[in-house]
Amino acid sequence: MTVHDWRRGVYAITDAGLLPDDATLIAACESALAGGLALLQYRDKSRDAERRHRQAAALASRCARHGVPLIINDDLALAERLRREGHGGVGVHLGQQDGSLREARRALGEAAIIGATCHARLDLAAQACEAGASYLAFGRFFTSRTKPDAPPARLELLAEAARFGLPRVAIGGIDADNVRQARRAGAELLATVQAVFGRGEPASNVQYLRRQLEDG
Ligand SMILES: Cc1ncc(COP(=O)(O)OP(=O)(O)O)c(N)n1
Ligand SMILES: Cc1nc(C(=O)O)sc1CCOP(=O)(O)O
Ligand SMILES: [Mg+2]
Question: Is the preceding peptide bond at 168 cis, omega within 30 degrees of 0?
């Protein structure tokens, strides 16, 4: 099994509206993984804990086969449970309302990937860095169908965030037309829902995004 460098490339995020049942979710994620992801995030805002565990565990197994870390959105307890169950590559992504990064680092250990939402704010990035984050996510940079009301951010912010020395994620409306622009502005990881899972075959979508990055 090849273990890829998770710090650079396409970061796909699932969406329960686009991928409503287990079979659709798993097939789409298998396809995206085959296209060559750096990271996959399981994002499901439902309160159905049993479904969230079942789906996340299924994705964790697929991710492990591809050497790609699975990141659980919002839910440290679910990430801890999956790791206890043997899914060692599982990490967590926490927004500003999603609990303590320090606690997540204590709970998951030094090697786990822990992501932090920093919106358009370098002060939040500094705090996240101090608290032990593995990457810093900035956005929204473009118009997002998935989260239209996310606070906007300027691409210039990405260069300013280089000082933290952590991988920078660009999120919010990232697509094949702007992914190169976000990379050139400084983002190592390009996070997207719609450009991977919105339409068409996820594998081809990921490959196309990767080609844009490689050519740029
Ligand atoms: C890679 C990445 N960046 C930002 C977010 C947004 O997190 P958050 O602000 O907690 O919002 P929700 O995703 O929970 O709605 C993310 N999920 N992933
Ligand atoms: C989950 C999320 N967080 C954002 C932020 O700016 O913090 S934007 C966003 C949605 C990303 O989906 P799409 O690629 O379809 O725009
Ligand atoms: Mg959140």
Answer: no
Alpha helices, DSSP H, located in 36-68: 49-66
Mutation test of ligand 2: which of 11, 19, 171, 206 has the most ligand atoms closer than 8 Å to its C-beta?
171
| Position in ligand 1 atom list of the atom nearest CA 95 | 10
Domain ranges of the chain: 9-215
Q: How confident is the model at residue 31 (pLDDT cuts 50, 70, 90)?
A: very high
Mean model confidence pLDDT for the chain: 97
One CATH from 3.20.20.30, 3.20.20.70, 2.40.110.10, 2.70.70.10 for 9-215: 3.20.20.70
Q: Which two tokens stand for residue 125?
A: 């990035």
Q: Which residues contact 70 (CB under 8 A, 6 or more apart)?
A: 40, 41, 42, 56, 59, 60, 63, 82, 87, 89, 90, 91
